[in-house]
Specification:
two-stranded parallel ribbon, 7 helices, globular
């Protein structure tokens, strides 16, 4: 019996990509998946044949035994010879089937490696957006852009080398249509700031948004405690709660208080098996947002540089996320972090001053379905509420957020939102959100996907409504979103000191160092955005 034709096809496919003559990568994977399906079907057929053959042999042996018992006159030598011949023939057939099954299993495993877990996999995410941006400044003047258009592209990649170790990465491109005017020396240097490099519609450069490895195991030091460890450029944007309106899976940070790109590490420990509490875990995080290092072509490459030479010390952040309960429907999240050596623009906007540190505390509650069986509408409705607090820790010779030198300030913010099924289509989703921030509220959310500025950073009130509709399954979708921010205090989207971060009360005249800055302070802002998005 010849080996199945599928074996020859698959072996050729594995040895040479020329065997896959399809024009596109999609077609190639379709062919490989079809071959795998055929192989699995043939493997099942061979196993069934083997089982049937074994059953028939057993039944024949039982029949012979019955016949011997009834006769008692069979020739022993002849019977023995026949049995040996039958065993030899049966052994050959069984060995042949076993070989074919082993070959098929080997090829299925090899094809699995090439199409699934052991090879680099890609997926793409492209979004076109057009926005109407409108600002009212503190002095009463206005600014607007009636049709700001952008292209955003993400290429995601992953590679599971083993069941415990995997690699993940994301390349990003985000730019306005064509070239962009209006960038000057004063603010142009901020366009490519590391914390927002891939969330800002800047130029046509493709950058690394995140890249890291992830190690996971089901036990830790012999304890029944699943854990993970990861290091690299973190997936630290589009975190919890902000992900709902962004129509994305959440990254681990709480989007209420942190939403920036940074480099660092994390370790997560599942506590459910130890405590018996659904979904309980703790995750420790640490990162660096700025490195004090001399240029490559200096006398001392990458050495620390003194502040007297215009350098800022390292900015480090450390904290933890603790989830005390999560059963799939109801979840409670908490987060704490501390960031040191935070910065603000100096008074001439030619560099940065180091001003101090910041404590941040966040807690939220999420209901993924309201009640149990009250109605289909409530079952498919999401509701959340979040509260956050920030506490400044200024250097003794610096103020933060407009405070006196060395004076600490505490700020507060709360945020509520809901997302519910569309009443005009089968798969669409509506969302409504509101958040409020006090005078000295300070988040680190510069990478939030809102072009008029981070809404959850607002020292004032922010309102948002959106509608998301799948057009072709989960591949093509559209969204229309309205965001309105009514600022009560300045500096919501600035840094952390008394220059860009000064939390002055907004008024028609705002005097700082003898200059009226009201013409540079936004009082109210709104963004109407429509996008169409392709993901595959």
């Amino acid at each position: 019996m010849n080996k199945p034709l599928v074996l020859s096809l698959v072996t050729a496919a594995l040895l040479s990509t020329t065997a896959l003559s399809a024009d596109t990568m999609y077609d190639r994977f379709q062919q490989m998946e079809l071959q795998m399906k055929q192989m699995k079907q043939e493997l099942n057929t061979l196993k069934a044949q083997k089982a049937t053959s074994a059953k028939a042999t057993d039944e024949e042996a039982d029949d012979n035994a019955d016949a011997e018992e009834s006769d008692g006159k069979e020739d022993v030598k002849s019977t023995a010879t026949n049995d040996e011949e039958a065993d030899d023939e049966g052994g050959d057939d069984e060995e042949s089937v076993d070989e074919k099954i082993a070959d098929l299993q080997e090829n299925v495993a090899e094809l699995n490696k090439n199409t699934n877990s052991n090879h680099l996999k890609f997926n793409v995410d492209y979004r076109f957006a057009i926005e109407n941006l409108d600002y009212k400044l503190a002095n009463g003047k206005t600014a607007k852009n009636n049709a700001f258009m952008t292209n955003r592209f993400w290429m995601n990649m992953s590679w599971a080398a083993t069941k415990n170790l995997s690699f993940h990465g994301q390349l990003a491109y985000n730019k306005a249509f064509g070239a962009r005017s209006g960038i000057n020396a004063r603010n142009g240097s901020m366009e490519n700031f590391d914390w927002i490099a891939n969330e800002n519609a800047y130029n046509d450069t493709v950058r690394i948004k995140n890249v890291y490895f992830l190690y996971k195991n089901s036990t830790f030091a012999g304890i029944d405690m699943p854990w993970t460890f990861s290091i690299g450029r973190r997936p630290s944007t589009n975190g919890h709660l902000i992900n709902f309106r962004d129509d994305d899976h959440p990254s681990s940070p709480m989007g209420h208080s942190i939403n920036v790109e940074f480099d660092g590490l994390s370790a997560k420990f599942g506590l459910e098996n130890i405590t018996g509490v659904n979904g309980m875990y703790i995750k420790f995080c640490a990162g660096r947002g700025l490195s004090n290092a001399a240029p490559k072509f200096s006398y001392t490459p990458y050495a620390n540089v003194n502040s007297s030479q215009g350098a800022n010390p390292d900015i480090d952040l450390a904290g933890f996320i603790f989830v005390p309960y999560s059963d799939g429907q109801y979840t409670v999240n908490t987060q704490y972090y501390y960031a040191n050596n935070l910065i603000d623009s100096n008074t001439t906007y030619t560099g940065f001053d180091t001003v101090g540190g910041l404590h941040s505390i966040t807690a939220n509650f999420i209901a993924n379905g309201i009640g149990d069986g009250i109605s289909d509408f409530l079952d498919d409705t999401i509701f959340f509420v979040s509260g956050a607090m920030s506490i400044t820790n200024p250097n003794k010779d610096q103020g933060m957020l407009g405070s006196k030198k060395g004076e600490s300030k505490t700020g507060y913010s709360y945020w509520v939102g809901t997302q519910f099924p569309s009443l005009i289509s089968e798969e669409g989703r509506w969302g409504l959100e509101y958040n409020h921030g006090s005078q000295y509220w300070r988040s680190i959310t510069y990478a939030e996907d809102t072009n008029i500025g981070s809404k959850v950073a607002a020292r004032g009130d922010a309102y948002e409504a959106y509608f998301t509709e799948p057009l072709i399954e989960d591949i093509l979708s559209m969204q229309i979103r309205y965001t309105y921010i009514d600022y009560k205090y300045a500096g919501s989207n600035g840094f952390f000191g008394n220059t860009s971060g000064n939390a002055m009360k907004i008024a028609p005249s705002m005097i700082v160092n003898g200059n009226d800055i009201a013409e540079n302070v936004v009082d109210k802002a709104q963004d109407i955005r429509f996008y169409i998005r392709y993901r595959y």
